[in-house]
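Each letter names a residue; structure tokens follow underneath. Both lines appear below:
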Amino acid sequence: MPQQTDSQLTTQANVIRNETVKKANTKVRVADMVQNVIDSKINNDKIGAANGVAGLDGSGKVPSAQLPSYVDDVLTYANLAAFPGAGATGIIYIAEDTNLSYRWSGSAYVLITSQVNNASETVAGIVEEATDAQTSAGTSVGETGAKLSVTPLKLKNQKLKSFIVPCSDEVTALTTGTKITFWTTFAMTLLDVRSTLVTAQSAGSIFTVDIKVEGVSILSTKITIDNTENKSTTAVTPPVISNPNLGDDVKVEIVIDQIGNGTAKGLKVAFIGH
């Protein structure tokens, strides 16, 4: 083998050194990638836990227990008999066979009605929902006195619809006054209105919300959220809708009428109707 010159030996040494550096760099990059995977790993004790991440059930969906209350506030069943034996407060239950809506009173399911009374053939002088026989006949058969029954075919074919309006960010303490103004994109008949807070008010005057349509309140009893509570559905005094007819392209304002000690944050208002 011929003797190599100093220049050739230097070149070979540089090649070996460069290959060594490349291998070392590759090892560093692999180590960094492994560490990144380790750092981004979600520990099992964080799944489904507070300040962690939501888990998935057997169908690949987030369990309802890990969703905000307003996500599953409306539950649909084939009929009243299919409802759970014991309901839950704050939930609207719908019977698909009649399209009627119910609340759980704590001991029984109570029909929600805002437009017409339940069907009967004995009460005079009122407008009420038609009985099944009247619906089939298309007339107020069997009535006595000055009473008119309305056939609820149009109502029966409608499904509940709802939308939620965020009225603030979720970190700034809420104050009184108009929080948001918007114009509706469709007409609906309101059955219920609700409010939620990300951070509950701890003390003071009861947190109170009003809804105005074209400058006029639609609530005879305004929405309240009791102290230490996050939602109006648990309030001692429920809201009462005095004007349920929410028209298309009308101006709606959400107003905080009263606050307590200034700790409430993250207001949202839900509109539920058909």
In short: DSSP finds three helices and 17 strands in the chain. The radius of gyration is 31 Å. The domain at 161-273 is CATH 2.60.120 (Jelly Rolls).
